[in-house]
Structures are given as structure tokens and as C-alpha cells.
Amino acid sequence: MRRRSYESRDNRIITRAHVFQSLMACAYIFAAFWAVHAFQSELAIASLGASAFIAFSFPHAKSSRPKFLLGGYAAGAVCGYICSLLMPLIPPSFPLPGYIAACTLAVFLSMLLMTVLNFEHPPSAALAVSITLADNPLAMGLAALLCVAALVLIKEFLKTRLRNL
Q1: Residue 34 — very low, low, confident or very high, per pLDDT cuts 50/70/90?
Q2: Which of 52, 98, 113, 146 is the most buried (most CB within 10 A)?
Q3: 60 CB contacts (<8 Å, ≥6 apart)?
Q4: What is the torsional sign of CA 138, 104, 69, 28?
Q5: Could you give the CA distance from residue 158 to residue 165 in angstroms, rounded to a whole number?
Q6: What is the pLDDT of residues 61-105, one digit of tens each?
Q7: How many CB atoms lie within 10 A of CB 17?
Q8: For residue 116, which of 64, 84, 152, 79 has the smallest C-alpha distance?
Q9: In the prediction, which pLDDT does 94 show?
């Protein structure tokens, strides 16, 4: 009988599921990076990478459900866009640089919105910051929403083959 796994240094068994799901996350991030690069929105890749980790490492966890991925990203995108519009309005006499105040507000608003609407997905708060800092926040928000929608479709299509690692 052929072995399907091998042991790592800490004696944890590494299975085909570990390799397959890690490769799926890698393939998704590769495609997502090209998509956000087309919109010149590379800052969004950090939150998308964290979401890919959650979706492919813990596909049956609460934060990996479509409602939380899509809802969280929608909340983060809206809050980030609002804060990007507010950032130029912060007066120079404000004790903090405008971008620090706007990014802090983006995290606060996205966290508040996600928890009130029960869409908690932590990487979405990072998206709010990325959108706040973006040169073209609308394009970044749309690119991130398209990428997370693709992530949800991929994960749901492979749901029967994925397991929590």
C-alpha cells in the first residue's frame, strides 16, 4: 500500500489535502494579483491573501462562509471609500496626519458595520485601509469585490473536496 502523506519535523502528518488546498490558495492569489494589478490596486492583495488562507485552510469555518466573505468585503469597501472621500477634508491643523485619521476611521467603521450586520471577516478591515490609501479607491474596491466573489465561487465549487486543515 502506498503512503499518501509524510511526516514533518514536528510529526504532524502532511496530507494531499494540505498540498491541494495550499496550491488552490496559491493559484487564486496568482490570479487575484493579476486582476488587482490591472486596476493598479496592489494594496488589496494583502487582505485577499488573508481571505484565501481562511477560505482554503478553514473552508467550513464561520468566517469562510459566502455571507461573511462577501458581506465583510462589501462593508470594508464601502467604509474605505467613504474614508477616502473624507481624507482631503481633514484640516492640516489636525493633530494627526490626515491619512492616519482616515485609516483609523476606516477600520472603526468597517468593524462597526461588520459586527452590526453579522458579516465579520477580519481581512475586510485591511481592505478598508487599502481603499482609503488608494489613488483610485473605486477601482480598488471593485477589483477586490470581484476577486472575493471569484474566491467564493471557487471555494463553493470545491466545497466537497475541501476540509478544515
Answers
A1: confident
A2: 52
A3: 162, 163, 164
A4: positive
A5: 15
A6: 998 999 999 999 999 999 999 999 998 888 888 777 888 889 999
A7: 15
A8: 79
A9: 79
Q: What integer is the mean pLDDT of 2-28?
A: 69
The three-state secondary structure class of 7 is strand
Strand, helix or coil for residue 1: coil
* Residue pointed to by grid coordinates 494583502: 46
User: Measured at the alpha carbon of residue 158, what is the angle toward residues 153 and 125, in degrees to the nearest 5?
Assistant: 50
Q: Which residues of 72-101 are buried (b: 16+ CB within 10 A; e: fewer)?
A: bbbbbbbbbbbbbeebeebeeeeeeeeeeb
> 59 CB contacts (<8 Å, ≥6 apart)?
21, 155, 158, 159, 162, 163, 164
**Which amino acid is residue 122, in one-letter code?**
P
